Backbone:
């Protein structure tokens, strides 16, 4: 991915940098040599500032004086936790996003790249979904609080452009997984939660309980691939309109569970608890726009990426969020 790098020097602030995607961006920038001459990067978490608080947001921006922001900070969870606390996810994320975008504007930040999510897509829709369809009808009821908060980022970006000419934009990742994920059964996303549960079942000699039928299909995107593309977006993407970032292929949850069991060498029983929700059956997104920009980008094959994530989890069991 060639870079024009014509706007250097650049001071990039990454919010939410201690999370799954933030750690992947740190890896790409600091370990894979993704940092360009003339760039300085600052990685912050909630320990540096609670971005729900406008004063703390302002203080951390004043400290680092960014020219560009990759905004990842959010209250995030898998389906089951999100659906229990729609109000809290709505309120916290609306506050975080408003504080970050408005402080960025007040401090003359040139570019902000925020994260939407494929769970914000309309529930009743035609497939595949593209970037123009995000607001066409209500999202799935299970995560409406989180989804409406995320949709507001796109509305805010348009308003900052219309009123102030700002290039504040967003990406739409699908279901992301990788090292440093949240592997807890309580609020992890499906892959990380099932990795955590399967490894525990292996250690304890018990069965694995998977939620739902295993039939829903998801586009599972490896965090390192997403991070590589997000760094490109920060440098090169000039649109206000969102960009879907995802692998093209879909995988049934049941198939993913089998890949996890094989990767962790789990030979015990796998039970599907069909009394639990399946959530949205599918939310297939098209990657046509991404392909127009980056026709040659190669995603890590999903099975390989699941195996690498399992290996990371086992090797880092002591420090993993499980
Ligand atoms: P994550 O692992 O849960 O990390 C969340 C990050 O946000 C952490 O660094 C956390 O800091 C920070 N944070 C949370 N509340 C904060 C607050 N009040 N003030 C400051 N920082 C706060 O999330 P992720 O999976 O990396 O997601 C990053 C972004 O991608 C989010 O905007 C999410 O909506 C979006 N996204 C994620 C997925 C996915 O499948 N994971 C899919 C689509 C979009 P601490 O560690 O200090 O708490
Ligand atoms: O990753 P996930 O929680 O969220 O996956 P979504 C939920 C799907 O996986 C449902 C099944 O079909 C569940 O029945 N599943 C099976 C499990 N076992 C488990 C388990 O142990 N934990 C979890 N969590 N699911 C997400 C949003 O929707 O979309 C996220 O909730 C994010 O916040 C993401 O925006 C992109 O894929 O349904």
Residues:
């Amino acid at each position: 991915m060639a870079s024009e790098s014509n706007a250097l020097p650049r001071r990039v602030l990454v919010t939410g940098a201690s999370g799954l995607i933030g750690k992947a961006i740190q890896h790409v920038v600091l370990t894979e040599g993704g940092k360009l001459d003339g760039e300085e990067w600052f990685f912050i978490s909630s320990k540096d500032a609670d971005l729900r608080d406008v004063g703390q947001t302002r203080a951390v921006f004043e400290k680092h004086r960014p020219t560009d922001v990759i905004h990842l900070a959010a209250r995030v969870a898998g389906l089951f936790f999100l659906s229990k606390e729609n109000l809290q996810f709505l309120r916290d994320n609306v506050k975080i996003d408003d504080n970050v975008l408005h402080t960025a504007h007040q401090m003359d930040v040139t570019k902000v790249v925020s994260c939407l999510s494929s769970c914000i897509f309309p529930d009743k829709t035609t497939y595949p979904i593209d970037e123009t369809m995000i607001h066409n009808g209500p999202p799935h009821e299970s995560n409406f609080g989180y989804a409406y908060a995320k949709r507001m980022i796109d509305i805010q970006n348009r308003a900052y452009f219309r009123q102030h000419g700002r290039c504040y934009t967003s990406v739409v990742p699908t279901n992301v997984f990788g090292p440093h994920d949240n592997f807890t059964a309580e609020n992890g996303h499906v892959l990380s939660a099932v990795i955590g549960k399967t490894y525990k079942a292996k250690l304890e000699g018990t069965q694995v309980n998977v939620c739902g039928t295993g039939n829903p299909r998801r586009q599972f995107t490896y965090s390192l691939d997403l991070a590589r593309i997000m760094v490109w977006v920060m440098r090169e993407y000039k649109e206000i309109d969102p960009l879907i970032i995802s692998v093209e292929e879909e995988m049934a949850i049941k198939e993913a569970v089998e890949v996890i069991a094989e990767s962790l060498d789990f030979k015990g029983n796998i039970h599907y608890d069909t009394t639990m929700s399946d959530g949205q059956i599918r939310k297939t997104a098209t990657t046509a726009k991404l392909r127009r920009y980056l026709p040659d980008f190669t995603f890590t094959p999903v099975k390989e990426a699941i195996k690498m994530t399992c290996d990371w989890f086992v090797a880092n069991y002591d420090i993993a969020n499980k």
